[in-house]
């Protein structure tokens, strides 16, 4: 529980906190120590850790829309660390640990809810892969178990144990699975950063990156030119387009990713339930709505539109898992755009351009990495380019050296 909430509950009067608001818009300065392109969760988290833990506050966050209005606002808020590789598990385990303390860190409630995630296995091959994932997760401190159908039925009594004539043979039960309010995470980081002197410039689009003699020295925006000592790119969904401004070709393909939500109903589902065979995952929010998500669209596109064919196939699979949901009404549908690498792992760290740092390629797991990404990117910048060990495996040059970190199949609903 955030300390401010406890203090607030014990007060006789309830004053309004004026400092809870973000600073009013200001003019861009001519020079900053650090320019961060992208005002989503990763961008504001990096600024926060730079300001609070490294004393670097002459920072401009440049967001072409509004705070957290891109993929941060378009995800389904899942937090987990049950990945396939040792590199992935270690990285996301650190993120889960940071998420658990964020409300107290911010003195601001991010509505973190420890729920657990259940992933269903319908084949012997999937059971074998789950057994391997369980051991990797346990080795690095994650709480993950392989459970049988009886245990699954006890966890989720309303689940159809034979969806689409594919019997549920076992389940990967990830006890650390959780959710948080995605916009609250962005607000908390932004509030903490701006209170320490960081400038957040919304409606400020970067239209070009200034590179001189192989070194990033500034950016051009729709509000003028800004010079800086270094640039951090954190623009999920548009990573290839922005990197191209600096002359960098990214090994990324971008796809739409859709989700939808029903009318609210009484609570019946605490864990997050997914099936990669059905390309579907289901969760119930604190408001009672049922959230459905699945695999990304099968073709590249820079567009956040929704489609009828995805809605039909995704809901058909969700109804296979929970037949009574056929009677619910769909309330809304939305989409984000995801940057996918060939090994389904992110690109973090140095780039071919000096003092231009990359935070890209997050696919469908950008939100769950927000705290640890901000922390490690801040360490990278504050050290002058010394790459932290935790993110060293995710450097872009791994694609030239055949050192891929293969997380294919680690998604809640396989792509």
Automatic annotation (TrEMBL):
GO terms for cellular component: cytoplasm
PANTHER family membership: FAD-DEPENDENT OXIDOREDUCTASE DOMAIN-CONTAINING PROTEIN 1 (PTHR13847:SF287), SARCOSINE DEHYDROGENASE-RELATED (PTHR13847)
Record's protein name: N-methylglutamate dehydrogenase subunit A
Keyword Oxidoreductase: yes
UniProt entry tagged with the keyword Oxidoreductase: yes
Gene Ontology molecular functions: oxidoreductase activity
Rhodanese domain span: 34-78
Keywords, comma-separated and alphabetical: Oxidoreductase
TM spans (from-to): none
């Amino acid at each position: 529980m955030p300390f401010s909430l406890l203090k607030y509950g014990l007060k006789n009067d309830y004053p309004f906190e004026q400092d809870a608001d973000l600073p009013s818009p200001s003019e861009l300065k001519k020079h900053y120590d650090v320019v961060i392109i992208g005002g989503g969760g990763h961008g504001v988290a990096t600024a926060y850790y730079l300001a609070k833990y490294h004393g670097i506050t002459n920072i401009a966050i440049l967001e072409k829309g509004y705070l957290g209005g891109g993929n941060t606002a378009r995800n389904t808020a899942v937090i987990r660390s049950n990945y396939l590789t040792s590199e992935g598990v270690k990285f996301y385990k650190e993120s889960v640990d940071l998420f658990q303390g964020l409300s107290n860190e911010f003195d601001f409630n991010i509505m973190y809810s420890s729920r657990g995630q259940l992933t269903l296995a319908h084949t012997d091959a999937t059971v074998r892969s789950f057994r391997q994932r369980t051991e990797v997760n346990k080795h690095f401190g994650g709480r993950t178990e392989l459970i049988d159908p009886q245990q699954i039925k006890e966890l989720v009594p309303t689940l159809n144990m034979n969806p689409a004539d594919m019997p549920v043979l076992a389940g990967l039960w990830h006890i650390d699975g959780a959710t948080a309010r995605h916009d609250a995470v962005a607000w908390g980081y932004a509030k903490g950063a701006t209170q320490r002197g960081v400038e957040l410039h919304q409606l400020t689009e970067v239209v070009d990156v200034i590179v001189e003699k192989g070194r990033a020295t500034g950016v051009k925006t729709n509000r003028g030119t800004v010079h800086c000592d270094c640039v951090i790119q954190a623009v999920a969904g548009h990573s290839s387009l922005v990197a191209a401004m600096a002359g960098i070709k990214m090994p990324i393909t971008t796809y739409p990713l859709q989700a939808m939500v029903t009318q609210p109903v009484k609570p019946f589902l605490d864990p997050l339930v997914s099936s990669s065979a059905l390309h579907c995952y289901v969760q119930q929010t604190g408001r009672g709505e049922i959230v459905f998500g699945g695999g990304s669209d099968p073709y590249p596109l820079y567009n956040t539109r929704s489609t009828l064919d995805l809605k039909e196939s995704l809901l058909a699979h969700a109804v296979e898992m929970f037949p009574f949901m056929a009677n619910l009404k769909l309330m809304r549908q939305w989409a984000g755009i995801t940057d996918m690498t060939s090994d389904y792992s992110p690109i973090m760290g140095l780039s071919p351009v000096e003092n231009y740092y990359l935070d890209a390629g997050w696919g469908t797991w950008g939100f769950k990495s927000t705290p640890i990404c901000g922390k490690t990117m801040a360490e990278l910048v504050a050290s002058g380019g010394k790459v932290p060990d935790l993110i060293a495996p995710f450097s872009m040059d791994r694609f030239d050296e055949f050192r891929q970190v293969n997380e294919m199949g680690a998604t809640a609903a396989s792509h």
